[in-house]
From TrEMBL:
GO biological process, one term: amino acid transport
Family assignment from sequence similarity: Belongs to the ABC transporter superfamily.
Organism from which the protein derives: Haloglomus irregulare
ABC transporter domain ranges (all copies): 4-245
Sections of the chain in a coiled coil: none
Protein name according to UniProt: Probable branched-chain amino acid transport ATP-binding protein LivG
GO cellular component, one term: plasma membrane
Keyword terms, alphabetized: Amino-acid transport, ATP-binding, Nucleotide-binding, Transport
Single GO term (MF): ATP hydrolysis activity
Amino acid sequence: MVLLDAAGLTKRFGGFVAVDDVDITVDTGEVHSVIGPNGAGKTTLFNLLAGAYEVTAGEITFDGRDITDLPEHERPYLGISRGYQITNTYESLTVFENLQTAVALYHQNYYDMIRSLANRTEVTERVETLLERFELAPQRNVEASSLSHGDRRRLEIGMALASDPRLLLLDEPTAGMDAGETERTVSLIQELTDDMAVLLVEHDIEYVMTVSDVITVLERGAVIAEGPPGEIREDERVQEAYLGGKADA
C-alpha cells in the first residue's frame, strides 16, 4: 500500500533548481533509499518530504492526505518522524532521560511532562520498550555524551520512534560508523519495517544495496533510475553517475 506519494516535486533556490520534477512513492513495509553523487539533491528532497523546506512545485500526500504545506512540527502527529545527518541528542542527559523526554514531548504537553514525568507509567513503559529494541538497556544511565558514535546514532533513531511513526525518515544513519556498527544498524532498520516504512538518504552504496527494497537514484536534482537493488547495480546510467563508470564483468 502506498503510504507516501510525492508527484512533480520541485525546489528552486533563486535560479538554481535543486530538485527537479521528482516523483517518488514509499510503500508500507519497505525500506526505500535515495542515493546519488554529491550535489544530486538528496538532502533537499529529504527536507521537502520532512516539511523542513517549502515546496516550489508539486505535491506530497501521506496516506491519502495532502501534506504539501503542512508544517514540519505537525507531521509527527500524522505518523511521520525523522532522524538527522548530525547526531541530535541531549548530551548532558542519560540514555533513559533522552528517550523519556522524546516520548513525553510527543504524548503530552510540555508543562505536564516537567511536572510529573517520572510518575507517568505509559511514558516509562514506552522508554523501556525502546531501550530493549535498540539494545541500549545496559547504557540506560550513561550520559549521551559518553556513548560510542554507533550507540548515539541508535539512540537518535530510538528518539525518532518515540511518536510511534508509520514513516521514518533517516538521513545517513550509518555516517561515521565502523563495519560492526553498520551491520547492527542494517539489521535494526530491516526489523523496523515490520511496523512501518523507512525512507533513507545514504552515501554508503554497499549498505544501501543490503538494506533497501527500492532505490531511487538522483543526479542534478532529477531521478535517473528507480528499482530494486539488483537493477540499480546494473544500470549503466547509475554506474556512470554514481559508481564511476560501468563495472568490469
